[in-house]
Amino acid sequence: MVEKKLWYEKYFIDPLNKYAANRLIKSITGGINGGVNVLLIGSFLTIISIIISAIPGLNQTSFALKLADLKVLVFGIVGMFFAYSIASSNAKYNKIDKQSVGFFAVIAYFIFMRPEFVVDAAGTTYFSVEFSRFGANGIFVAIVSGLWAGEVSNFFKKRGWVINAEGLPDIIKTWFDYLIAGTAVTLGAWAFTGLLNIDLHTLFSSLLTPVVHVFTSFGGSLLINALSPLLFYFGIHPLSVLTPVLAMYMTATAQNAELLAHGLAPTIANGFVINNLATTFLLDLGGAGSTLGLNFALLFSKHKYQRKLGQLAIFPSLLNINEPLIFGLPIMLNPIFFLPFFVVPIINYVITYFVLFLGWIKIPSSMALSMHIPAFINAFILSEDPKAVILVIMLVILDGLIWVPFLRLHARQVEAREK
Amino acid sequence: MNILLVCQGGMSSSFVVKKIKEAFKNKGECVHIISKASMEIVDYIDETDIVLVAPNVLYEIEDIRETCTQHGITPVILPMELYGRMDGEALRVFIINSQDGGNDG
User: Fold this and answer.
1) B-chain residues within 8 Å CB-CB of A26?
2) Which residue of B has its CA nearest to A238?
3) Residue A166 pLDDT more than 70?
4) A165-179, A260-274, A402-416: segment of lowest average pLDDT
5) Given pLDDT bands bounded at 50, 70 and 90, which one contains residue B50?
6) Domain assignment of residue B105, yes or no
7) What ipTM was reported for this prediction?
8) What CATH number has the domain bearing residue B44?
9) Which residue has better confidence, A106 or A35?
10) What pLDDT shows up at residue A269?
11) What is the distance between the alpha carbons of residues A89 and A37, in angstroms, rounded to a whole number?
């Protein structure tokens, strides 16, 4: 059976699927998703410090300050974990040893960071590198380190021409393969920084700053917020396409978090960027396409099958997982639902942008980026502003109301079909 | 029988797996079924008999199929609406049928 492809399949879905299935893109996506799990530790520390700051007498004590330092430390070294996890996800796709490749990436990452050895008067050697490079600011260097380590190792491993002596035990062969691969990764990285004297971090900063500006502008972010539901509507998981773009938003979050750590209030005047990853996560109401409002509308529906789906899907929805709604209702490729699914995230974004622009709510600036925390709680963690929770509740109610007429239309269609 | 269900991040599939497990249990059958992110297939395929694929990772079905074929397994794509509605019983029947009549994955 050969089906003729529709125009949007040929020109939209196929190229995007091809892009998302690209090994390098998949490695970045998988690696960033894996690395984000490390941010969970920092997120938990954030929750604790929010609780402590609410307790009179504990605020500003040395205990609270030490805890704040711990938070800065944990968030400050995530770049290294991204290097490791991007390399190991690349190794998984290449089907080679992920741990070795991950270690090579960490070595490459340290080399690309260009640390200096400083000897003080007493003769003690210190390892010195600008701290912010190790955090989310180093995400691009982490991506390069991860892919560099992964692909170079793959090249040497797959060739297998390194040691082909007959009668050599397999384990020795493997050992040599990785020795050669690891050395190549290391020397290659060193040639770049040591011999060619290129500072990747500075290079990326200057090259990507204008790009980051475009994406974090009102329009750029609007585009991304509109693209996400569009992709999901056609059955392409938005994260499989957009994760590399999220890396750009992450650098903006890192800059905001740094300003916050210096004690500045999160306002535009103080140089905080509205559209950073924390804001994107705050807008992730029930999953890509902001379907939490829809889920509540289903719960209150007059139609039994809609209520049933709503009950099934509410727990995943609270954890920002909306596959049950996308595939179960279904929203995907369903003409009735295109409009609300496409429009709701845009409305949420525009309202939130102006609320933040007017300074009614603190600009979300926390590195506590975790995808699967209920939207109402996440809003507070990301912005440390209780008013953000009220905003999210209002958006969810508004979203639900927008969905109601479309659900009624759908129910009428389903009933007509059953008759 | 060991079953592996893969999706984008291993999150939505974990809810579906729970329902499938319940359905098998209700029929008094014992299966071992786990959910993982699609990139983790290589880590689990050695101890897997059946690979189920969620509709949210169809973009990389070619890669998944290649990995599975190397291990003599034909991946089974789960129908979108059964997956979305987390209909454990219907999925149980679907899985069994896919194994009986030479699957179409």
Assistant:
1) 39, 60
2) B56
3) no
4) A165-179
5) very high
6) no
7) 0.89
8) 3.40.50.2300
9) A106
10) 94
11) 14
What gap in Å lies between CA A256 and CA A301, rounded to an integer? Answer: 41
The pLDDT, as a whole number, for residue A175 is: 79
Q: Is A231 in contact with A16 (CB distance < 8 Å)?
A: yes
Q: Which residues, in sequence order, are bridge partners of residue A333?
A: none
- Whole-number pLDDT of residue A28: 92
How far away is chain A from the Cα of B3, in angstroms, using its nearest Cα? 20
Q: Is residue B76 in a domain? A: yes
Query: H helices within A166-299, ranges in order?
Result: 170-190, 200-216, 218-233, 238-261, 277-282, 292-299
Of A333, A336, A243, nearest in space to A288 by CA: A243
CA distance B49 to chain A (A): 20
Q: Which of A92, A326, A372 lies nearest to residue B39, judging by beta carbons? A: A92
Instruction: Annotate A347-407 with DSSP letters as a single string.
Output: HHHHHHHHHHHTTSSPPP--S---TTS-HHHHHHHHH--HHHHHHHHHHHHHHHHHHHHHH
CA distance, residue A87 to nearest chain B CA (Å): 13
Q: A192, A200 in Cβ contact below 8 A?
A: yes
The pLDDT assigned to A3 comes to 60
CA gap A380, B80 in Å, rounded: 34
Q: Which DSSP string corresponds to A262-329?
A: TT--SSTTTT--SSSHHHHHHT-SSSTT--HHHHHHHHT-SSHHHHHHHHHHHHHHHTT--HHHHHHT
Look up tokens 């008013």; give the residue. Answer: A387
Give pLDDT, residue A151. 95
| pLDDT in the model for residue B104 | 46
Q: Which amino acid is at B46?
A: D
The pair of three-digit structure tokens given for residue A236, joined into one six-digit string: 């392409």
In a domain, B13, yes or no: yes
pLDDT at A194: 87
Nearest by CB to B59, from A17, A332, A372: name it: A17
Number of domains in chain B: 1
Residue A323, classified by CB atoms within 10 Å of its CB into exposed (0-12), middle (13-18) or buried (19+), is: buried
Which residue range(s) make up the domain with B64?
Answer: 2-100
Residues A82-106, mean pLDDT to the nearest whole number: 93
Q: Does the pLDDT value for residue A162 go beyond 60?
A: no
Please identify which residue in the block is written with the tokens 């797959």.
Answer: A158
Distance CA A168, CA A158 (A): 18
The answer, yes or no, to whether residue A220 has pLDDT greater than 50, is: yes
**Tens-place pLDDT, residues A113-144:** 998 999 999 999 999 998 888 888 889 999 99
**Which residue type is seen at A264?**
L
